[in-house]
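Researcher: Let's do a round of design. I'm pasting the structure tokens now; please hold your answer until I've finished.
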């Protein structure tokens, strides 16, 4: 049986202190638990360094701002806290989950009057959908729920509440024998999977949906940079689901999953082809560069909204 997330050795950085893992707790009347107001990140540790750490910390701060709150730590302080907790847990590789939330001082829809908290928890975790683990690529189905319009929700924020429909769709996909579900946006265009962005290989170029109100992935930005370095044109534009018929290769990408070749989307079948394989190899090299903790291709997250 796998180890419970609540019952482990090690440390979680909680509100400024390295806290023994099992003691990192909160009250049941926490605002974020009831109203979905937590914002979070997912990061990966390679060779003891957190890939694009600065960009992740900045996106965390931006997500909170999109919900109307300010984290009481600077981006640099969050970076330092992350490095400290990764070191305390002696992790050379793994995953990091920073999460900020509104506390338990008052209970009601409004979060005014609650304190802001931040926890950073790293643990050992490998990607399970990698090309090594799934050489033929993963099986994806189309989701029923769509990503919300900008009039409905701040879709560029990585906020707990927005993951409700992702969770429903991921569970539905798993129960039906698929690995993930692909979500359209409110206009019926391709958006993202329940936890990753998508790329299509079409001819000599890569095509990816332009994030209008869904997560602008840090891995996605890295992939765009790698493709351009190879001299491949990258089209960032509205992509209709019918275009999946014209793609020769499809892959997903995200921090936790890394580069994930897609073998099938419902009745459509894809080869794990040369463009996907090249990106898998380039990404492996990129994450091991000594300066990988910087903003890289995600410098736009440095300019807060
Ligand atoms: N979309 C969704 C819904 C996600 O949860 C993630 C993972 N954070 C991504 C895209 C990819 O983002 P990133 O590359 O920054 O991990």
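Researcher: That's everything. Go ahead.
Model: Designed sequence:
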């Amino acid at each position: 049986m796998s180890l419970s997330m609540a019952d482990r050795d090690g440390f979680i950085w909680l509100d400024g202190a390295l806290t023994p893992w099992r003691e990192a707790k909160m009250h049941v009347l926490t605002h974020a638990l009831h109203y979905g107001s937590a914002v979070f990140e997912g990061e990966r540790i390679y060779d003891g360094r957190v890939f694009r750490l600065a960009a992740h910390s900045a996106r965390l701060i931006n997500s909170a701002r999109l919900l109307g709150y300010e984290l009481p730590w600077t981006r640099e302080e969050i970076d330092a806290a992350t490095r400290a907790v990764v070191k305390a847990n002696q992790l050379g590789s793994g995953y990091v989950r920073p999460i900020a939330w509104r506390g338990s001082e008052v209970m009601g829809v409004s979060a005014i009057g609650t304190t802001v908290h931040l926890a950073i928890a790293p643990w050992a975790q490998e990607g399970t959908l990698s090309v090594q683990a799934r050489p033929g690529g993963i099986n994806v189905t189309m989701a029923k729920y769509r990503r919300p319009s900008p009039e409905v929700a701040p879709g560029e924020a990585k906020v707990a509440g927005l993951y409700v429909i992702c969770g429903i769709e991921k569970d539905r996909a798993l129960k039906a024998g698929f690995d993930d579900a692909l979500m359209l946006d409110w206009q019926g265009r391709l958006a993202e999977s329940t936890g990753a962005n998508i790329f299509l290989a079409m001819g000599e170029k890569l095509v990816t949906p332009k994030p209008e109100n869904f997560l602008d992935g840090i891995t996605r930005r890295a992939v765009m940079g790698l493709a351009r370095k190879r001299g491949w044109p990258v089209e960032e534009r509205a992509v209709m689901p019918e275009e999946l018929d014209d793609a020769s290769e499809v892959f997903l990408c995200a921090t936790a999953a890394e580069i994930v070749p897609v073998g099938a989307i419902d009745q459509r079948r894809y080869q794990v082809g040369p463009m996907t394989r090249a990106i898998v190899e380039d990404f492996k090299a990129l994450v091991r560069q000594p300066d990988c903790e910087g903003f890289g291709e995600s410098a736009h997250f440095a300019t807060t909204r």
